[in-house]
Amino acid sequence: MLVVGPAARSDSPQARPDLSGVWEVTFGVRTRPGPGMPEQPSLTPEYAQKLADFKAAQARGENQETPQANCVPPGMPAIMNQPYPMELLFTPGKVTVVIEAYSQTRRIFMDGRKHPDDPDLTYNGHSIGHWEGDTLVVDSVGFTPDTALGPSQGYRHSDAMHIVERFRLTAPDTMEVVTTIDDAKALTKAFSATKVLARHRDWDIAEYICEQNNRNLSTEKGKAGIILNH
Amino acid sequence: MKSFPHRLRSGALSLTLALAMVPPAALAHHSYAMFDMAKTVTLQGTIRDFQWTNPHSWIWIDVPDANGTVQQWGIEGMSPNYLERRGWSKRTLKPGDKVSVNIHPLKGADRGGSFLSVTLADGTVMRQSGGPPPSSGPVDLTPPLRNP
Questions:
Q1: CB under 8 Å to A136, separation ≥6 — which residues?
Q2: Exposed end of chain B (fewer CB within 10 Å): N or C?
């Protein structure tokens, strides 16, 4: 029986830095803008107006709360910036990101496929990846405009949002992720930010059923509520 | 809040300090719009229930008011996922425990708040950060930026 070792694959963990395991964003290091990139998204006039409308509603007492209070996951890019860990699983042809917050999963196809010509629009998008030296490069499209671009719900993105993430080790248990976002409809230019994650070798991803005992709520107009009966 | 009974010690924190104490996990789930983040209140009472649940733990505590009438307060804390990695367990608080809890109270008259710390009967103080994590990695309570 001929056994072909996984090292024969160009995307195998043996051939590349080991990025597998449970990682948590280190908010002590803080997300920071990438080199030469603006700190805030630079919005087109149409999307600047959306932000202005959002802020005007906020001034009226609306839009104080996000859909996440109702347990709606934030989608990309915010789902990668949660204060809960994520696990990177490397299997032949695929990287799976198991995200504790909102029990989300991203599948990054490493088998050479392209994005669909007309992808369905989803919260976490369609992701394909490849290695560039020691860096895992993930390219994602196909996002529903139901989710926010960030940093607040007033910053919207379109169905043209395109995200490139570059993952690489900077120390044995430290990973840097440079995220660059462009959106021909919403942004006048791409913006980029860098975050640092710490690997916790003794952690496991835990269950997170947001609907279990959620006492927070957001009304249709984004007003905050809380349920105190017990 | 003038409606607070005398057993509740109320003191305003500086805005800077209050923001520094904002735990990151709750930000993932909801805003703090309903809490008075500039105010800290201490509740002294008896644990009625400790809900070890997602997306938040909830401390239910019976607190006597100025007239001696026991009032129930609901205190929202971090998720078990976050707390368990920082020294807490489902048994950290038990019904009947006499405790003192610091909170940011809800705006308005409802008896609820956002958890800051609890002092147990033996004097142990438990914060959400719970001290150093069980493995390497920096710990910081500054709120995360929600854009990448």
A1: A16, A19, A95, A129, A130, A166, A167, A168
A2: N
Residue ranges per structural domain of chain A:
6-216
Q: CATH second-level architecture of B9-127?
A: Beta Barrel (2.40)
Cβ atoms within 10 A of the Cβ of A8, count? 10
C-alpha distances out from residue B129 to A49, B31, B79, B91, B94, Å: 40, 19, 12, 17, 20
Q: How many residues belong to chain A?
A: 230
Residues B118, B113: Cα–Cα separation, whole Å: 13
Closest residue in A to B30 (Cα–Cα)? A69
Residue of B30, B72, B143 with shortest CB distance to A230? B72
Q: Which of A39, A84, A103 best tests the B interface by mutation, with the highest count of B CBs <10 A?
A: A84
Q: A69 in contact with B at a CB cutoff of 8 Å? A: yes
Tens-place pLDDT, residues B72-100: 999 999 999 999 998 899 999 999 999 99
Domain covering A6-216: architecture? Beta Barrel (2.40)
Q: Which residues pair with A217 in a beta bridge?
A: A225
Report the alpha-carbon distance of residue B66 to residue A130 in Å, rounded: 66
Model confidence over A190-228: pLDDT tens digits?
989 888 999 999 999 999 999 999 999 999 999 989 999
Give B-chain residues touching A66 at CB under 8 angstroms. 30-31
Q: What is the DSSP string of A64-122?
A: -S-GGGGT----TTGGGG-SS-EEEEEETTEEEEEETGGGEEEEEE-SSPPPPSSPPPB
Structure tokens at A69: 């209070």
CB B56 within 8 A of CB A211: no
Where do runs of H (alpha helix) occur along chain A? 45-59
Give the closest-approach CA distance of A1 to chain B in angstroms.
Answer: 43
ipTM, two decimals = 0.83
